[in-house]
User: Fold these one by one.
Assistant:
Number 1:
Amino acid sequence: MGRVYNFSAGPAVLPEEVLRDAAAEMLDYNGSGMSVMEMSHRSKVYENIIEEAEKDIRDLLNIPDNYKVLFLQGGGHTQFAMVPMNLMKNRKADYIITGQWAKKAFQEAKMYGDVVAVASSEDETYSYIPDCSDLPIREDADYVYICENNTIYGTKFKTLPNTKGKDLVADVSSCFLSEPMDISKYGIVWGGVQKNIGPAGVVIAIVRDDLITDDVLEGTPSMLRYKVHADNKSLYNTPPAYNIYICGKVFKWIKSLGGLSAMKVRNEEKAKILYDFLDSSKLFKGTVRKEDRSLMNVPFITGDKEMDAKFIKEAEANGFVNLKGHRSVGGMRASIYNAMPKEGVEKLVEFMKKFEKENA
Ligand code: PLP
């Protein structure tokens, strides 16, 4: 079987060029006589790999000098705890709940302090982004937290909330490097790489210098302190060395295509193909408010569970895999991250049209 069109929400499709390139270097990286997998993370050759990866993501996102880039472990769920442990000086934080991942972060933070949901779209199954222009942000809140792109529900913040001067912390796992962003608007931007950037096992956190301190909650383990990782240039302990190397290759791939502005154009084109079809279809329909639609995750339904299951099964038999919606919402979801080629979306829509005709 050849490569399929993989619409998984994560781990997800990676650029074929990157995989081929990594395969070519598998036995002998750059004359070292070994795979990056086999290499000491303290070696000069590895140091160059991680330093170059950092430099490339700094270039791509135009990260200001007063922010550190940290390659961390423990997935998104560890950030749910690490953020409050490092930032809760007053033990207060305000969360905007736009989906399951924001809610999980909110629940985790509650273990450490007084945490309030200042807005939520749970009333309509997270199918929209609430108005965040004038929220009851508390005077002494340590930060305001969002999940910028909601992987499960397929919504995205198109404008950032008015945090009334408080530091904004954003989980960008499912929209990382999909378009340009202004890092200076955030205190912390973090994302798991397993959707748009690389193999699962790495979280990239971009943290403003003044938030990196020893003044953390009592009992915070060394591994969960941003300062420990910043002081050690992400090499405090053995990092997921190979995975970071692949991330570095993806950064170069994005650069070769013209950077994040070019990515945005590509992603808008791809998403438009699918959304335009959904808006014209008699069988399929999108599930979220149009103005809040994500460019990355596109959920849709037929309204009939059996028809959904039939579609998913036939799609898979035709090489379009992982289209089942998240287990908590059902229906379908096409994740169309950076590495999904336009052709993959065009072919999916072609298949959907055919399915619609046959099942009218
Ligand atoms: N945040 C978002 C937006 C996600 O989509 C996910 C997982 O899919 C997570 C957090 C959780 O990440 P992890 O499984 O790495 O803990």
Number 2:
Amino acid sequence: MKQAPKHPVRLERQGNVSLIVIENPPVNALGAAVRRGIAAALNAALSNDKTDAVVIAANGRTFPVGADIREFDMAPQQPSLSQLCSLVEDARKPVIAAIQGTALGGGLELAMAAHYRIASKDARMGLPEIKLGTLPGAGGTQRLPRLIGPELALDMMLTGSQVSAGIAAEMGLIDLVTSNDLRAEAVAFARSVKEPRPTSQNRTHLSDGSAYMATVAARRAQVKMELGADALAPNKIIDCVESALLLPVETGLQVERSAFEDCIASRESAGLRHAFFAERAAAKFPEAAEAKPEPVDRIAIVGGGLMGSGIAIAALQSGFAVTLVEQGESGVNAALERIGAFYERSVAKGRLSEAQGAAALTHLQLTNKLDGLGEADLIIEAVAEDFDLKAGILSEIGSLAKPDAVIATNTSYLDLAALAATTGRAANTIGLHFFAPAQSNALVEIGVHDTASPQAVMTGLGFVRALGKTAVRARVHAGFGSGYIGNAILEAYRHAADLMLEDGATPAQIDGAMRSFGFRLGPYQVADMSGLDIAYARRKSKPRDPEARYVEIADKMVEQGWLGQKSGRGYYIYIDGQRQGVPNGDVLKLIAEHRAKLGITPRKFTDRDIRDRILLAIVNAGARLLGEGVAARPSDIDTVMIHGFGYPRGRGGPMMDADATTPSIIASRLSILAPEEPTLWGAAPVLTMLAQERQKFADLNTA
Ligand code: 3H9
């Protein structure tokens, strides 16, 4: 974020109304200088005899979106946001908040402390603190239930979701919604009100104490059941809302303050805040200094399999016109069926109206001819992972695309630079590595090879962001690892798991250990879901590392036709097409025979051993990617793992976890394991360097 301006708050006058105008781009976060500025301006306005009312407004795209999150780890500075809100509420002249954009967190709390609220028609508001592992700490838990009642207040705070100005007005949160000039309307409104109206004195929703307590009790039971009694922020939010009824407001604010501090001090909040900034750092590509994204309206996708269809759906959902090219009539029909099924499911589940589903499909053009490619601004090749096949298609795309079109390949492990060369316009060609299922997975790695132009890279980035997905830049150069960040880490993860499988653990035990760590699924559940044949084909197409221990269990399973969910049988058995499997006894037999053949006496791994080994493997692979320059920052690896693989967000990602353990302890644990399998456990040079220098991965992060 840019340096805060020196004077981020101005006091203006329009006749008998004083305007406190906040200007702290880009999002008017309420940092210390802003809080001091608002307090000083308020005092000045209140002591000015010519002022009868005060409007708090903001310049730029939005009313404040909250406290400045970066200050949470710093020493507190006066006035706190809570103190500032009390100052506003206690003002003896009416204070009106004029809201545009998104009033979030502390921004909405400031507005709730004002006596009246007026909002632009397209404004939105919410209290998203729970997404950062904390709660509204500037009076929000005390004022919101007073304004809209406990039920709706708990809904907003426990989900962190936003409501529109119109809905907020219906709830009683907003006094007036306007389509006219907000500032002028706020000044007129200020002139029309005579008295302050402190929110803390509003008892409308507190009068029926037993109904209030029944709501609180029901929510407490629900949170306990769904999230557990030790889910910190949700349970504390409920405690605070209960205090709003039971305690005088000053005491309620103290309860809230201490709950907020407990939450901020938690590991989970630190992880969630790290993840927030990591995502934003990942969006900063060095190419931005040299180029801007070109507009993309029409895209074409060549290959309508699972991946190509998923990309098409993601693009249609974001309003792009899509041409999808498949082979022959049967290919076209299969792709149409796949995409149609998605829209049918979405309509059936109420996510889309029938009209929306039908409208999206009107932007889809399915064809078995490549000649429509000439109109596309961006062409994505998404055919099977076979170099010759991809090279052939890419060279055709290169000859048909318009001169300034960007060409992308969805390859995940083939040589990106070599594929780019086949188009005859390597500079315009990049990698767009979507993760399955592409319609819903939030991550896309942008593959940048040596000769890719900044223009093409930035256009790819613009497209990914327009899909609402998180982009991470991967510097893909020949000869290094698997190319992309996600694949390299997944390989190390799976290798660590497979070694334990061969040496004594069971698939269910490994999966269970990783679920208890916070992954939604363990590695063997994921393998069953993705299809064992896909990884098999990849293994067979790649040269083997003669130094590495090769675990043949998965190959033997594929050779028996056990392909995972799609064949009803993999590491688990799926009875009657069910998604939840039961352990496959035949696999356990196969593993036992395999161990006996190799002369391996099975040994015990505790869940902790399993988690430790897998995390060590992930962190070491991450450190290697940093050394090779594939990943630019440790936080990019965290972002890939959270979005691409479901690493628990509250932990902030593996590199943040590694910092909590410290790189030197990680390096010494690796040195103990290294003799077992040097290719996996040999410490990456970056890790060794950090351990020697007593540094952390965070020291390598750049904004
Ligand atoms: C809170 O309020 C606690 C209080 O209850 C109690 C206090 C005592 N602080 O996302 P973008 C930066 S907790 C600091 O790319 P968009 C962001 O890092 C807070 N910085 O834009 C980025 O910087 P850079 C509750 C912030 O248009 C730049 O602004 N509020 C903050 O895609 C642009 O952000 C929230 O949790 C912040 N609060 O989305 C809201 N917010 O340019 C968090 C943003 O250097 N923010 N930045 O990369 C958001 O959800 C999105 O940023 C928002 C805009 C929707 C506002």
